C-alpha cells in the first residue's frame, strides 16, 4: 500500500490546486470538469476526489486560500511602513483595490462566484475549515492596523476588507452587461452599460471610506 506522508499529501493538493487555477485563468467555471482538472494535474480522478468531493469545494478552497495570501501581502506592506497615519491607511486600501483587480483578476473572478455558485455545492466542513483560517488572517491584519491607529478597531478593519471585496465583486458582475459568456456583444451598442472596474471600484470605495469615517479619513 502506498501511504503518502503529510508533506506528500500537501504537495499533491497544491498540484491539484495549481492545475485548477490554470484552467480557470482562461476558462469559465461551468466549462471546467473534474476529469479535466485531474488530467491537467496528472492525477487519477479517484485521487482528485480523495482531496475534493466536488468542483465547488476545490474552487472554494482556491478562493479562501487566495484571499489569505492577499491579506498576507497587505500585512507585509503595513509592517514595512515606519509610520501609519489614518490617511496612509486609506491610501493603502484604495491602492490595494486597484492592485487586487489588476494583478489578481483570477481571484477576483472567483470571488464573484462564491455566493451564487460555489456555496451551492461546496463541502461545508471543508469550507468552514478554510474560512476559519481566512478569519484568523483577517483578524491578524486588523490587530496590526488597530495597534497603529487606535481610532480603528479590529472589527472596523475587518469590515473594510469585506466592503472592498463586495464592491469589486458587485461591479465586476455588472461590468459584463455588454458581453455574453466573456465575449463582446457586437451587434448592439451597450455603451452606457460599460464599467471601468478599476476606476469605479476605487471611486466607490473612496466614497464609502470618507462617508463612513469622515473624521478618520479626511480628504
UniProtKB/TrEMBL annotation:
Native species: Lacticaseibacillus sharpeae JCM 1186 = DSM 20505
**UniProt-listed GO biological process terms:** negative regulation of DNA-templated transcription
Recite the UniProt keywords alphabetically.
DNA-binding, Transcription, Transcription regulation
The family database entries (PROSITE patterns) matched by this protein are listed as: HTH_TETR_2
Report the leader peptide range.
none
List the PANTHER family hit by this protein, alphabetically.
HTH-TYPE TRANSCRIPTIONAL REGULATOR RUTR, POSSIBLE TRANSCRIPTIONAL REGULATORY PROTEIN
Q: Which residues bind DNA?
A: 33-52
InterPro entries with a match to the protein in the record: Homeodomain-like_sf, HTH-type_TetR-like_transc_reg, HTH_TetR, TetR_C_34
Protein's recorded name: TetR family transctiptional regulator
Amino acid at each position: 500500500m502506498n501511504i503518502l506522508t503529510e508533506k506528500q499529501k500537501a504537495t499533491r493538493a497544491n498540484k491539484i490546486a495549481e492545475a485548477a487555477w490554470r484552467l480557470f485563468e482562461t476558462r469559465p467555471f461551468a466549462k471546467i470538469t473534474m476529469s479535466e482538472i485531474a488530467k491537467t494535474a496528472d492525477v487519477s480522478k479517484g485521487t482528485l476526489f480523495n482531496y475534493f468531493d466536488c468542483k465547488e469545494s476545490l474552487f472554494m478552497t482556491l478562493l479562501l486560500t487566495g484571499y489569505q495570501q492577499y491579506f498576507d501581502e497587505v500585512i507585509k506592506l503595513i509592517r514595512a511602513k515606519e509610520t501609519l497615519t489614518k490617511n496612509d491607511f486609506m491610501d493603502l486600501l484604495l491602492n490595494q483595490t486597484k492592485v487586487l483587480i489588476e494583478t489578481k483578476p483570477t481571484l477576483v473572478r472567483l470571488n464573484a462566484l462564491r455566493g451564487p455558485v460555489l456555496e451551492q455545492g461546496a463541502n461545508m466542513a471543508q469550507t468552514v475549515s478554510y474560512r476559519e483560517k481566512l478569519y484568523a488572517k483577517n483578524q491578524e491584519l486588523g490587530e496590526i492596523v488597530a495597534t497603529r491607529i487606535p481610532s480603528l478597531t479590529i472589527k472596523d478593519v475587518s469590515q473594510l476588507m469585506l466592503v472592498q471585496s463586495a464592491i469589486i465583486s458587485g461591479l465586476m458582475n455588472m461590468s459584463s452587461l455588454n458581453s455574453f459568456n466573456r465575449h463582446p456583444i457586437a451587434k448592439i451598442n451597450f455603451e452606457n452599460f460599460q464599467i471601468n472596474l478599476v476606476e469605479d471600484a476605487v471611486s466607490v470605495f473612496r466614497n464609502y471610506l470618507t462617508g463612513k469615517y469622515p473624521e478618520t479619513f479626511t480628504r
